[in-house]
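[job 0412] stage=complex_fold ligand=D-malate status=START
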Amino acid sequence: MTPHNKTLKTLKTVLLACALACGAVQAQTYPDKPITLVVPFAAGGPTDVVARMIAIPMGKSLGQTVLVENTVGAGGTIAASRVARSAPNGYTLFIHHMGMATAPALYKKLPFDPLKDFEYIGQVVDVPMTMLARKDFPANNFAELQSYIKANKDKVSLANAGLGAVSHLCGLLFMSALETDLTTVPYKGTGPAMNDLLGGQVDLLCDQTTQTVPLIKEARVKVYGVTTLKRLSALPNVPTLDEQGLKGFEVKVWHGMYAAKDTPAAIIDKINAALRVALQDPMVKQRLADLSSDVPPMDKVTPAGLRTHLEAEIKKWSPVIRKAGIYAD
Ligand code: MLT
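[job 0412] stage=complex_fold status=DONE, emitting structure tokens
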């Protein structure tokens, strides 16, 4: 080894030791100021509902306020880029759904790498979806919806939250199952999309039960089916799309929590502990159960559990998306 290489090696060892020591010191005092939890879709929508539900108990555990901030646009990728570039100190956290796994195939120029630019905190919740229409839409059940679409395809609009959103994915799977092609209308989240569905400006929306269950129960929207293979306890009278003929139609949305790459492990452990406490909080559990959403088994609410799941989901969705030929530039 040349003297120059030897000096470089020593310098690297010193820097690494310093980084570990600094991380340990940072972790001891963490958190000593409010934490931001970035939501990649509009306020009031399903991801926002979950974020706000867990932010309060997480904040209580951590002894600091967890502030929810909505950074919207481009199907969640703007928020993901923001968090990937944030200081790796545990003060900027990110909650996102399976869009984290579909984005690498959907976006040709993705400004972040889900497998390289983040630390993983844990899986959060699993949420089914429902296929809905505005209240005065002519079709009263799924059979009527199919006939109506056949006869009026060009008149029917389908809302979604942009490329990478699960409402978009569910809509694509639905159109493919019905062998039809509807006019799609993108929003910055299904919160605003739902406002337009309630206002009668768009016809159809596939959206998560964390937003839709109360609206279905209050009959403010029409519902044609749920996207799970079994009926939901919160909506026992709503048939599955599978049982109505769309064999194998299944979308269940998983969520994960992330921080910027190189956030010290001791800080990730503290955040993970707070997330686990929040997900086991009786009030949170009850609210999620009322929305037919599930807390994953606790071995998935771990950094390794989330990372393994994300890897598997990227492998699952990438070929499907490539085959469908859906891309953003
Ligand atoms: C939202 O929070 O608005 C939704 O999760 C968007 C979507 O992915 O459909």
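The two ends are 47 Å apart (CA to CA).
[job 0412] exit 0
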